[in-house]
């Protein structure tokens, strides 16, 4: 009997007090709100001026064309499917995703920021 009482007391000690609701108005305590998870950093967005530009430099290979563009006095890099472009061409791009810190083995450099496009189209 002594062991049975100790067993019940042990179970009660391990049970939260709110779980021992006696039906007299007790119950589960108010639950503190969970701390919000840190917000995931939003993916970088393409600025309006980054949908087109003048080709400053280009290099094609490995199935991609890398172009440095300038629009509204701002320079930026774009990589897209192999496209025949030359310095001075005006192009439109269909941006897909922006990557920061992208390392290109083909270009032998790490881009601080680059836009990957599904299309680079020369404007005539």
CATH superfamily of one domain: Nucleic acid-binding proteins
- Gross morphology is globular
Helix content: 10-25%
Proportion of residues in β-strands:
35-45%
Topology order in helix (H) and strand (E) letters? HEEEEE
Give a brief description.
It contains 1 helix and 5 strands. The protein has one helix spanning 2-14, and strands at 52-61, 64-71, 74-81, 90-104, 109-122.
List the helices and strands and how they pair.
Elements: H1 2-14, E1 52-61, E2 64-71, E3 74-81, E4 90-104, E5 109-122
Parallel strand pairs: 3-5
Antiparallel strand pairs: 1-2, 1-4, 2-3, 4-5
Structure description:
By secondary structure, this protein is mainly beta. The chain has a domain at 48-122: Nucleic acid-binding proteins (OB fold (Dihydrolipoamide Acetyltransferase, E2P), Beta Barrel). It has one helix at 2-14, and strands at residues 52-61, 64-71, 74-81, 90-104, 109-122. The chain is globular. The model is unreliable at 4-13 and 15-29 (pLDDT under 50).
Essential attributes:
124 residues, mainly beta, OB fold (Dihydrolipoamide Acetyltransferase, E2P), 5-stranded mixed β-barrel, 1 helix, globular
């Amino acid at each position: 009997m002594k062991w049975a009482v100790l067993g019940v007391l042990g179970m009660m000690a391990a049970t939260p007090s709110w779980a021992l609701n006696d039906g007299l108005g007790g119950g589960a305590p108010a639950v503190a709100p969970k701390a919000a998870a840190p917000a995931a950093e939003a993916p970088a967005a393409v600025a309006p001026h980054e949908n087109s530009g003048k080709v400053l430099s280009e290099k094609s290979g490995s199935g991609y064309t890398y172009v440095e563009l300038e629009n509204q006095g701002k320079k930026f890099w774009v990589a897209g499917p192999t496209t025949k472009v030359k310095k001075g061409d005006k192009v439109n791009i269909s941006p897909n995703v922006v990557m920061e810190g992208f390392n290109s083995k083909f270009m032998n450099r790490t881009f601080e920021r680059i836009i990957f496009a599904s299309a680079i189209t020369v404007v005539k």
